[in-house]
Amino acid sequence: MAKVTADLIRDIRESTGAPILKTKKVLEEVNGNREKAVKILRKEGFEKASKRAERATAQGIVTTYTHHNGKVASIIELLCETDFVAKNDVFQKLANEIAMQTASMNPKNEKELLRQDFIKDPSRKIEELVKEVITKTGENIKVGRIARIAVGE
């Protein structure tokens, strides 16, 4: 049985957005197995995210990304329920990741974007990143409009 430490709880909490006591309880149930605990907590978080899907998303931000060579850029709209969450670092980081993904992978629309493998971690889909932030913030989050422009296209 692996030891359930404060560092392990903190690490899993940061990656899943789950409450500390819930994280500790799940870790104890799986005998300290990090991978099993993360899988359980993410599944529970995604179930909560689907319950929020019908909430209105009238706030958010518009974020841009320009590739280092200056020849490709994207602009995305990321929507949430409140201005408070729109100003949150976790939300803004998600917006930046999605803008970079859009510039790199040139999805045709938002639905295609959500189904793409995340360029920084191909084992995860963009949709999973969004659901993780929904779990962390407690608000519905949706990708709004996306656009990409490249020199010569």
UniProtKB/TrEMBL annotation:
<dbReference type="InterPro" id="IPR014039">
    <property type="entry name" value="Transl_elong_EFTs/EF1B_dimer"/>
</dbReference>
<dbReference type="InterPro" id="IPR009060">
    <property type="entry name" value="UBA-like_sf"/>
</dbReference>
<feature type="region of interest" description="Involved in Mg(2+) ion dislocation from EF-Tu">
    <location>
        <begin position="82"/>
        <end position="85"/>
    </location>
</feature>
<dbReference type="GO" id="GO:0005737">
    <property type="term" value="C:cytoplasm"/>
</dbReference>
<dbReference type="Pfam" id="PF00889">
    <property type="entry name" value="EF_TS"/>
</dbReference>
<comment type="similarity">
    <text>Belongs to the EF-Ts family.</text>
</comment>
<dbReference type="GO" id="GO:0003746">
    <property type="term" value="F:translation elongation factor activity"/>
</dbReference>
<dbReference type="InterPro" id="IPR036402">
    <property type="entry name" value="EF-Ts_dimer_sf"/>
</dbReference>
<keyword id="KW-0251">Elongation factor</keyword>
<dbReference type="InterPro" id="IPR001816">
    <property type="entry name" value="Transl_elong_EFTs/EF1B"/>
</dbReference>
<feature type="domain" description="Translation elongation factor EFTs/EF1B dimerisation">
    <location>
        <begin position="73"/>
        <end position="151"/>
    </location>
</feature>
<protein>
    <recommendedName>
        <fullName>Elongation factor Ts</fullName>
    </recommendedName>
</protein>
<comment type="function">
    <text>Associates with the EF-Tu.GDP complex and induces the exchange of GDP to GTP. It remains bound to the aminoacyl-tRNA.EF-Tu.GTP complex up to the GTP hydrolysis stage on the ribosome.</text>
</comment>
<keyword id="KW-0648">Protein biosynthesis</keyword>
<keyword id="KW-0963">Cytoplasm</keyword>
